[in-house]
Structure prediction request, 516 residues.
Amino acid sequence: MNKDRPLILVTNDDGITAPGIRTLIEVMNEIGEVWVVAPDSPQSGMGHAITVNETLYVDRIIVDPDAPQKEYSCSGTPVDCVKLATNELLKRKPDLCVSGINHGSNSSINVIYSGTMSAAVEAGTVGIPSIGFSLLDYSLEADFSHVKSYVKTLAIQALNHGMPKGVVLNVNFPKQNASGIKGMKVCRQANAHWIENFDKRTNPLGRDYYWLTGDFVNEDKGEDTDEWALKHGFVSIVPVQFDLTAHHAIKDINTWDL
Amino acid sequence: MNKDRPLILVTNDDGITAPGIRTLIEVMNEIGEVWVVAPDSPQSGMGHAITVNETLYVDRIIVDPDAPQKEYSCSGTPVDCVKLATNELLKRKPDLCVSGINHGSNSSINVIYSGTMSAAVEAGTVGIPSIGFSLLDYSLEADFSHVKSYVKTLAIQALNHGMPKGVVLNVNFPKQNASGIKGMKVCRQANAHWIENFDKRTNPLGRDYYWLTGDFVNEDKGEDTDEWALKHGFVSIVPVQFDLTAHHAIKDINTWDL
Prediction:
């Protein structure tokens, strides 16, 4: 790595024009040479989807002619963006990949549905230090001002330390409140899940359809979880791995009559 | 659970008419009461995507009027199918969810891109014993005859034993060959990744576009991996978890200057 001028890939899942990625670009421009490769439209909930049966388009775009970063918008998913960036668009392997800042939480089980985090994970699979950032505010007018210094600190620390092998970071920020953020906490993912309440309607042609809506259920009261940290005003940092093997369960399954 | 007549949810990512899911339905009909809720079109590579900005349609379909199973085709992703099945369509929580049989490998890092496995994981998040099955043959004319007995054994064992908490199974089958399958092996996910070779073309209007293609790179020579097992003619069984926390890395990150 050129420590004076690290190469930083920025992506997200809310689309290249979302305020969250604009904040992330602004902060990364203070640290290194920034290349943005992000979806041309919102891709929330895309998880680790890739585009295998359709073509991908990429356009060089200029959002601000005076800004230093290079920007590309892509017709694919967040993971497609990272693959295109690292294999086709960037001149070399980036020193850091940052994804977000997502408009809405990616804490706990939300990590598995999150395009923001899947983009970060994709970069991690090819050995790029990588962080996904999310703010617990779904609004497009969300205020990101209180998180900038934390984003900068974490990016610099990741550049300085590198990342443990096979690990990326899932960082969530509480919404701004009067008392401010209390600090950062390294946490485990809370053991929570969703229970869906589908909203069933009938379209003008008389055909039923559904909207997916649900309730987040967290029965994990551990004070070492991301949910606890966020509820108590801390930034949550969960080290996330993409070796999904439940090593502890191998012994169990070996007792089966196979 | 009613052990005489367990309720089994069947889904996949290749779409409800794919030969792989037809084989799975056939085997499950020997074990219990089968409800099929699967995508109306191929959804390969959809990972854990959910449909949040569009509506979902569900249709009761009858593929074979003499068959005992109930079948629904859904306009959404594999994960949407599981959510709709468990929260809206099925009369009670199923005793087992099986997904597949996928046309193509979901071993190693492929687990994170796989709609087949994400459907299984989704069922796991709400406590349903769940298994994703895949065959290392992408062809739509793939021969599934040699895997039926293994599918049945695994489903029965999962019903009898239940699943370790927070775990689902990722089962991959080698292609049929003259010597047959050598047995089943409980494994860890091989530490492999993809390097993409985008196929860049120009459309009739002169605009460049890309097809995603890539090479699978496995530098993990461990004999306890799924890749090793499959290469040597065994069925690979990887217990997969959806708590993505890299617990071992918490200590590392806590040494950062945060």
User: Anything to note?
Assistant: The mean pLDDT of chain A is 94. Chain A is about 25% helix and 30% strand. The first strand of chain A starts at residue 7 and ends at 11.
